[in-house]
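Can you give me the bound-state structure? Components:
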Amino acid sequence: MDTWINALPYLLEGLQITLYIFFIAIIIGFLIGLLMALLRLSPFKILNWIAKIFVDAIRGTPFIVQLFFIYFGLNSLDFISMDNTTAGIVTVAINAGAYFSEIIRAGIQSIDKGQTEAARSLGLNSTQNMRHIILPQAFRRMLPTFTNQAIISLKDTSLLSVIGVADLTQEGRIQASATFQAFEIYLLLGIIYFIVIYLLSMLASFVERKFVLR
Amino acid sequence: MTMIRVENLKKSFGDLEVIKDMSTVVEEKEVICVIGPSGSGKSTFLRCLNRLEEITDGHVYIEGVDITDPKNNINKIRQDVGMVFQQFNLFPHKTVMQNVTLAPMKLKNMDKAAVEKKAYELLDKVGLREKAKAYPGELSGGQKQRVAIARALAMDPKIMLFDEPTSALDPEMVGDVLDVMKELAREGMTMVVVTHEMGFAAEMGDRVLFIDGGYIVEENVPKELFGNPQHERTKAFLSKIL
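Here's the bound-state model for the whole set.
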């Protein structure tokens, strides 16, 4: 118990970093996903291809390789310099963005064509149709899958400890080697992740109940 | 005044030629009913009138404006052409009131109070004022279709297109929807109605178009078309349904 009480302040500090990275990355990731989904569904072949290549490249490579490429690879170029936290946020955002784009695309395509026809017949242009009719319905429908991906991304942030980001996992590793109490520390680390993810799922199902049952 | 002029309209889906050659004219305040067997192209014909289907060849003029000319703003033209669909296509995430007010709020520079006042008048007209705050999922089919009519009317269209508006309804709901359409016709709305309701066509139609195989086979006043059809295909169709 003493081990836990002594380690907890450090771990909570790490948790703050983890949540900070997670929230920024998930917001940027969502915007990337939305942009890529719209490119993918646009009538222009070139834009479709750009989005498809992006999504395939991210889905076809491991997260840790993407992280090393962005942190070590891009940083070795003269004109780019990122600290490890920034590189971590960028990697999580791009990675989540690729998966989000597929979720959003499927969500948009699942909305009945009659909705677009009704909106267009009233005189709404395609942007107004997307904004007021299609996306609000698609987002409600994609919320469960969206939560899933957010949870995966939250867990992915633990890999940022590999490049030295002082996140929850990194703090845990430091505490484990400082105290030689690996069992207790990693158990506590797991419990903290579990609680955060559990709260996140509860928040998501609350939002779902509020908006989806329409 | 001529509201709709269709000149040598052709529409293909890939290799399938659905509309081979159609021409007709709809004058102001006319109610045109379009009948014909399923797959004859009557819905496609209607959907070409506001370019929900891209037109393969020929011209469609709405109030003299060629909607096949890409230089003309189709979104602007559509504001004058209301459409009611077989499957209602109400926006399920919006209340009845929001369904009716969305387009005028976004497209006309009217303030919210004025748009809502108008919306209540329209909901009165279709007998659904008390459903203003309900969501489409809470309505019956007949109620949904009446909301859809109110939604289309909210843009103050000069022409209303109806695509089999009663085909997806339970029989006891059909009457309410037809009553609303009849009132609209009596008020002088220019209407094109694709329908299987021969009673409505006979009572309200100024002219009836019989469509088959991608052509307008016959068009006449209802009395003549139903009482004295000239073409074999019209006779065959009518003998099956009457």
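A couple of observations. Chain B has a mean pLDDT of 95. Chain B touches chain A through 26 residues (CB under 8 Å).
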